[in-house]
Design goal:
2 copies of one chain form a homodimer.
Chain A: E1 14-17, E2 24-27, H1 36-44, E3 52-56, H2 62-67, E4 75-80, H3 83-95, E5 102-106, H4 112-116, E6 121-126, H5 142-148, H6 155-165, E7 166-177, H7 181-190, E8 193-204, E9 211-218, E10 225-226, E11 230-235, E12 238-239, H8 241-247
Parallel strand pairs in A: 3-4, 3-6, 4-5, 6-7, 8-10, 8-11
Antiparallel strand pairs in A: 1-2, 7-9, 8-9, 11-12
Amino acid sequence: MQAENKVPLYESERIDDLLTHNMKIIQSREVFCFSLDAVLLARFASVPKRGRVMDLCTGNGAIPLIMSTRSNEAVFEGLEIQPRLYDMARRNVLINGLESRITMHHGDVKEAVSRFGHGAFDLITCNPPYMPAASGEQNLNEHYAIARHEILLNLEDVIRVSSQLAKNGGKIALVHRATRLIDIVTLMRQYGIEPKRMRFVHPKRDAEPNIVLIEGMRGGKPELRIQPPLIVYEAEEVYCDELQEVYYGKRDSLA
Amino acid sequence: MQAENKVPLYESERIDDLLTHNMKIIQSREVFCFSLDAVLLARFASVPKRGRVMDLCTGNGAIPLIMSTRSNEAVFEGLEIQPRLYDMARRNVLINGLESRITMHHGDVKEAVSRFGHGAFDLITCNPPYMPAASGEQNLNEHYAIARHEILLNLEDVIRVSSQLAKNGGKIALVHRATRLIDIVTLMRQYGIEPKRMRFVHPKRDAEPNIVLIEGMRGGKPELRIQPPLIVYEAEEVYCDELQEVYYGKRDSLA
């Protein structure tokens, strides 16, 4: 990776493997690390062959980085409100030499429609904050708090803005806690997005799912497909075959 | 079964084992046979310790018969619009000597609220017609057509009436095709029923689910629990352990 030398690293940051296609990612435990949920969403979403893809709340940019490996002609963008994370995402594009494919933007999701226009994207992805603003778990530093809690953005904001940014027939793919499923699907319908595909992620076989992957289509017709469950750990600390294939590059999609 | 002798059987009818608690059930391939879906719903629903339970579209009454084994003090009712099925359901109560626990009614679900009153029940169950009225599969005899297609009753009718019949805090449990999930949950919310518990039924491991079991609470707070998947066949023609236990009486509930 020649590009690595040109990209500055700041205190507390490190370069990790993104575990696919020899990609690298700058992270910092002090402010943000990408999670398995981001990897799952990047593999689950219906990435178009060509067209324009936007990842809201992109953090350090893991989702656009991974999605870029799934399409040769689509272009990818990410939007992040926290300057420190936005800067990390921007450098993650450089470090992988993907400036021609991925553009990172600094700003507020709630201003995205006036900035990018109605119907500008073929796919919107988002791994939003999962927890209510005032929940008890909120004893974190500010960076983590904003990424995890609905402080600056709630679920309705994400779905409303996604619907406005997507073109008619465009897709909106989210990852969220399974307990929020009813809110997600009713808000999607309220904003003209028909849920079309869903997959539950179970920490292990015969456990309840903790995470749901869901994709809707703007203006789509009702008919939901529920995919087989994704079991993360087949045995203790052993990823299931499907995730091993994702991580070791033999498989590009969870669709 | 002493009662069997007193209950008439008509042409084409036969007495089958209900496969639990030595119960018997009159069926006829000409008009209606209960399905695995009915058994699953009867095991999935939160049957109250005491109180009043109504099964809409009860057919030959399999669901109240099975639910009656799960509670000693609750009373069960069934409502069926087809006279021939209603009469079968009535005789199925007699044949099992359950007249003190189960009452069958003949009539239209759409008139149930004026007949039974608002908020009369602690639990409403329904295994409704799955298919649209005008779907291509409708080359059946009239009895099967009414039981399987939304000819006399559609999903919105079922959910609206269930909401009116249930007391505040009461439960509504349905079984339906998984492809209709979004309609079910949005209609539930529209009529004041919060989906609280859901379970997907997969024909086999790693297959997509074809059936969903879902229970909501009238006036409940949002927070969905999704149970582990129910895999019907672990191997060809071999029910999974959980269903074997249900059928052989070692287990009463799928909750």
